[in-house]
Design goal:
This protein is an alpha/beta fold. About 40% of the residues lie in helices and about 10% in strands. Strand 3, helix 9 and strand 4 form a beta-alpha-beta unit. The protein is globular, with a radius of gyration of 20 Å. This is Cobalamin-independent methionine synthase MetE C-terminal/archaeal domain-containing protein.
Length: about 375
């Protein structure tokens, strides 16, 4: 494959991972102690700080430049935004009418974590750091309009999202002011619209899934409208990653046109690790100026893919893009692609059923493959 692709100097970089990394045993042990009240929050934080420093070093050693904190402070990928906002309460045994208060962001959510991550790298590396954030539509897609918010506080979805998106906007702005230039929104909900089982369930429930997809895309665009030009925002679309297990199947064909042409993000991190993700054909709709990160390395198993096999799949993706866009050159199509594992290694704290050595080998493979494909352009 040609290595004439242009040098990437900003996100998304050619070789990356989705965000979460395996929690080392001391973090899991101290987290359990904290749950049982056997250690202080400060003691837990100290262990997490040490683990973050360790995974930063891991990423440097293997050649990953889009460094994250591995989500070492989280139990689940979606932790952070919602429970950190005023007006949000998570007490499932309380009746709905007890939930009161408008949503407001009165403090930083991921900002302190970014400050610590920033303290571990050189000033030149800061622009490549990546912050992962749960999608703003996550609670709504899980619980619907009836139970996501108190109807004595918000009369409808638009009112709810107006305040929620403002809180997200404030968080993104502060992260930007701190030097963050790469935000990844983790959103499994888009894959619901790819799965026949999910579509059938929505239709049975009387839900207009096309209108719902349009609604969510519109809310993303409301959030991201007017963002700084040098802030890269990507969306990772996941089919489930609970200790190596998935929850839905289906290719991107059903949503590809809207996904690539209407959703106002810079890049799409797509799962392509096995047959349940469907084929690469939806990439024919990828417009110029946007990037797809091909998640072709599995984080669910220790079985190691080969550089040659990954290169062949990237070549196939280039062909699909060019066949769908005759004006696009191979070099141009190649410039629109990057590579990564299909998901994080630990979307939940317990992690996927692989070892830390497996994780290192997978990350090394991603970097080696990127070098083999893009050469100095990675």
């Amino acid at each position: 494959m040609s290595t004439t692709a242009s040098q990437r100097t900003s996100a998304p970089l050619r070789a990356q991972h989705v965000g979460s990394l395996l929690r080392p045993a001391p973090v899991l042990e101290k987290r359990e102690e904290a749950t049982q009240g056997k250690c202080t929050p400060e003691e837990l934080k100290a262990v997490q700080d040490a683990a973050i420093a360790s995974v930063v070093q891991l990423q440097r050693e293997v050649g990953i430049r889009s460094i994250t904190d591995g989500e070492m402070r989280r139990n689940f990928f979606y932790e952070g935004m919602f429970e950190g906002l005023d007006g949000m309460t998570f007490e499932p045994n309380r009746p709905l009418e007890d939930f009161k208060g408008k949503i407001r962001r009165t403090k930083g959510i991921h900002t302190e974590d970014f400050k610590y991550l920033k303290s571990l790298v050189s000033p030149e590396e800061v622009k490549d750091l990546k912050v992962t954030v749960c999608a703003p539509v996550w609670l709504h897609v899980r619980h619907g309009s009836e139970t996501t918010y108190d109807h004595s506080v918000y009369a409808n979805d638009d009112e709810y999202f107006t305040d929620l998106l403002q809180a997200y906007r404030e968080e993104f702005n502060e992260l930007y002011d701190l030097g963050c230039r790469n935000i990844q929104i983790d959103d499994p909900s888009f894959c619901f619209f790819c799965a026949e089982t999910m579509i059938s369930a929505m239709e049975k429930a009387g839900i207009d899934h096309e209108a719902m997809l349009d609604f969510y895309i519109g809310k993303y665009n409301d959030l991201l409208r007017g963002r700084p030009k040098d802030l890269t925002v990507g969306v990772h679309m996941c089919r489930g990653n609970f200790r190596g297990m998935h929850y839905c199947e289906g290719g991107y064909e059903r949503i590809a046109v809207k996904l690539f042409n209407e959703l106002d993000v810079n890049c799409y991190l797509l799962e392509y690790d096995d047959e349940r993700a469907g084929g690469l054909e939806p990439l024919r709709y990828l417009p110029a100026g946007k990037t797809v990160v091909l998640g072709m390395v599995s984080s669910k198993t220790g079985l190691l893919e080969s550089v040659d096999a990954l290169k062949a799949r990237v070549e196939e993706a280039v062909k699909v893009i060019c066949d769908g866009n005759p004006e696009r050159t191979k070099e141009g199509a190649l410039n629109q692609l990057c590579i990564s594992p299909q998901c994080g290694f630990a979307s939940v704290a317990e992690g996927n059923p692989i070892s830390e050595e497996d994780e290192r080998q997978k990350l090394t493979l991603v970097v080696e493959t990127a070098k083999a494909i893009w050469g100095t352009g990675m």
